[in-house]
Amino acid sequence: MEVLEEPTIWQKAWVYYQKGLENGDKRIENWLLVYSPVPVCCIIMCYLVIVWAGPKFMAKKEPINLKIVLILYNFTMVCLSAYMFYEFTAASWLASYSLLCQPVDYSNSQLAMRMASVCWLFYISKYVEFSDTMFFILRKKNSQLTFLHVYHHSTIILNCWLGLKYTPGGQSFMTGLLNSLVHVAMYLYYGLAAFGPRMTKYLWWKHYLTTLQLLQFFLITIHTVYNLFADCDYPDALNLIVSIYALSLIALFTHFYYHSYLKPKTYEQKKCVKKV
Predict the structure, then answer these.
(1) Of 209, 215, 170, nearest to 191 (Cα)?
(2) What sign does the CA torsion over 174, 176, 179, 185 have?
(3) 49-80 tens-digit pLDDT
(4) Which amino acids are annotated catalytic?
């Protein structure tokens, strides 16, 4: 009698991995960068390598003047964010989405596919936002390459991929809607700032922008935590992941807000601020 070998832990893991991929939304599995997390992780690794190597490469070079590029980029992102906010709002409103409990519509109806499409566009926009980091490196603004900046840009894509792969719509629409709205204000601020010092007097609302960013994370956390305890046909695992991620961003943005706007500055710091 032939004795069957027990599968190794790696073989079992591979089987679970394949099943996990097959359990994704069949409607969108052939869309760009959706089916497998491997290309996603490779892109994230390339991003982290650039964050590490970029400042070293630019160390002995002059900063690149990107004024025109920054103006065009930031106002393009304003338009893209505004469009995504409109699509999230329209698709959820027309489909009579509930703010408290909204399962995913996996049908091929026009509204269901419209929501899936804007979820995909939101996900792809996070790759475009890698440009924020590239511009910092090329302009030698290395002080902007904070842990918060790199952490947020490198992890948001994987979170978006998970949501898009398995739940393109439903409860997850709230994250895209709020984030798109905040990014309209954020990229508007940076678009105006790109014009130079003459715009400074119109940019007094910077700390309100950070407050708005914090508010979105609080709302996302409340929205997802509520659904962890509600009887709603939406994966608790994804709600838990989003909740933990939002809490980590609340902690990091609160730390940034305190050190940027609340913590008393030393005399040397005040001198530096006046020189800038």
Answers:
(1) 209
(2) negative
(3) 999 999 999 999 999 999 999 999 999 999 99
(4) 152
Listed residue (51, 249, 213, 48) closest to 135, CA to CA: 51
Domain boundaries, the chain: 34-275
Contact by Cβ (8 Å): 250, 220: no
DSSP assignments along 251-264, one per residue: HHHHHHHIIIIISP
| Inter-residue contact 136 to 54 (CB < 8 Å) | no
Judge whether 214 and 250 are in contact, CB under 8 Å.
yes
Query: What stretches of 41-167 adopt beta strand conformation (E)?
Result: none
Buried b (16+ CB within 10 A) or exposed e, 71-88: bebbbebbebbbebbebb
Nearest alpha-carbon partner for 222 in 242, 208, 238, 249: 242
What integer best gives the mean pLDDT of the chain?
91
What is the C-alpha to C-alpha distance for residues 51 and 63, in angstroms, rounded to an integer?
16
Residues 6+ apart with CB under 8 A from 15: 7
> Between the CA of residue 32 and those of 65, 116, 178, what are the distances in Å?
33, 13, 24
Torsion, Cα 148 56 197 193, to 10 degrees, reads -40
Asked whether the predicted pLDDT for residue 265 surpasses 80, the reply is: no
% of the chain residues with pLDDT over 90: 78
Instruction: Round to whole Å and give the CA distance between 45 and 39.
Output: 10
- Is 141 or 265 the better-scoring residue by pLDDT? 141
Rounded to an integer, what distance in angstroms lies between the CA atom of residue 39 and that of residue 100? 34
Query: What does the DSSP 8-state code read for residue 230?
Result: S
Region of 132 on the Ramachandran plot (φ > 0 left; ψ -120 to 50 alpha; else beta): alpha
- Write out the two tokens for 64: 């690149």
CA 234, CA 238: separation in Å to the nearest integer?
8
